[in-house]
Design brief:
This protein is of the alpha+beta class. The protein folds into two domains: about 5-65; about 80-320, paralog of FGE (formylglycine-generating enzyme). Helices cover about 25% and strands about 15% of the residues. Strand 1 and strand 2 form a beta hairpin. The protein starts with 6 loop residues before the first helix and ends with a strand. Mean pLDDT is about 80; it is low at about 1-70. Bound molecules: calcium ion. The site of calcium ion has 8 residues, from loops.
């Protein structure tokens, strides 16, 4: 599959977006070249969402733009760890403290477009071990240093690598673990949401308002080049971080999790859930530069086959390192 959006790929992108908008109604394997089985209603929904997001961007144009991150407080800096990848390239991590949280979204959650999806049933999750998580998505510079190649569509050393498959993301973790002697892996879906929430109980890590999303995320309403109008990923870490120092958890690129996808993760309390023992599709979280605000919510769940790529729609990842390593 080429890296440029052919007509069929663009249609697949809209299909993928609509699958997110459709939430739990889409249960099947999602591939970029899958035959679209959508109604005009889904397409209309997505078009309406895009239009609404654009209007919000216009209304909150200045609010939705942020400059470089400001200096970190000393206490926050002490929670950081840095991996040396070689060739002076580093990867910064933030400590995510163990704890208990409510995963998913309430059935009553309202949303400008759609709100709660059936595959987001709220349940209590205990994260029993603190861990470190990459403060940004893995960048192209970091990926190329470890893997010796850069498959990205939107080239830029500090842009997140994308698209990579789940298998490639796992291979990155394996190689970096071998290089550093540390335990390095993808986050579980529960770890990802826990880290993204950073203690919040709202639709986004910063609150409920779509109008504020552009301060924290690159998504469809603000990812376009101001001159050309072409939408793309952006360098990682330019937007405001969440309360635990993580950047771009919402938007920029979808992020692979280690879990097999299940549409029903159930209402029961769980400790360190890692998803089903087997499955056909893997989980991605956080939405992307090409998604509406609904797809970028804390509890929104993307999924695709582990050997499939999100192509220009963005499939990246960030790493987790065990606390004791
Ligand atoms: Ca992201």
């Amino acid at each position: 599959m080429g890296r440029h959006p052919s007509k069929s790929v663009l249609f697949s992108i809209i299909t993928l977006a609509c699958l997110m908008v459709a939430g739990a109604q889409a249960q099947g394997l999602v591939k970029k070249d899958a035959s679209p089985v959508r109604t005009n209603g889904f397409l209309d929904d997505f078009a309406a969402a895009q239009k609404k997001a654009s209007v919000m961007m216009t209304n909150a144009a200045e609010t939705a733009r942020s400059g470089p991150p400001t200096a970190r407080p000393p206490a926050e800096a002490a929670r950081e760890r840095v991996l040396n990848l070689g060739n002076t390239v580093t990867l910064k991590l933030a400590l995510i403290p163990k704890g208990i949280f409510l995963m998913g979204s309430p059935a009553t959650e309202k949303d400008p477009e759609h709100g709660h999806a059936d595959n987001e049933v709220q349940h209590t999750v205990t994260i029993s071990k603190s861990f470190y998580m990459g403060v940004t998505e893995v960048t192209q510079k970091q990926y190329e240093t470890v893997m010796g190649k850069n498959p990205s569509t939107f080239k830029g050393p500090n842009n997140p690598v994308d698209p990579v498959t789940w298998d490639e993301a796992v291979e990155f973790c394996r190689k970096l673990a071998a290089k550093t002697g540390k335990t390095i892996r993808l986050p579980t879906e529960a770890e990802w949401e826990y880290a993204c929430r950073a203690g919040s109980k709202t639709r986004f890590s910063f609150g409920d308002a779509d109008a504020d999303l552009g301060v924290y995320a690159w998504y469809t309403a603000n990812s376009a080049d101001r001159t050309t109008g072409v939408k793309s990923t952006h360098p990682a870490g330019l937007k405001k971080p969440n309360a635990w120092g993580l950047y771009d958890m919402h938007g920029n690129v979808w992020e692979w999790c280690s879990d097999w996808y299940t549409a029903d993760y159930g209402p029961d309390s769980q400790t360190d859930p890692a998803g089903p023992a087997k499955g056909a599709i893997r989980v991605l979280r956080g939405g992307s530069w090409n998604y509406c605000s609904w797809g970028c919510r804390l509890s929104g769940r993307g999924r695709i086959g582990p050997d499939g790529q999100y192509d220009v729609n963005g499939g990246g990842f960030r790493v987790v390192v065990a606390e004791k390593d």
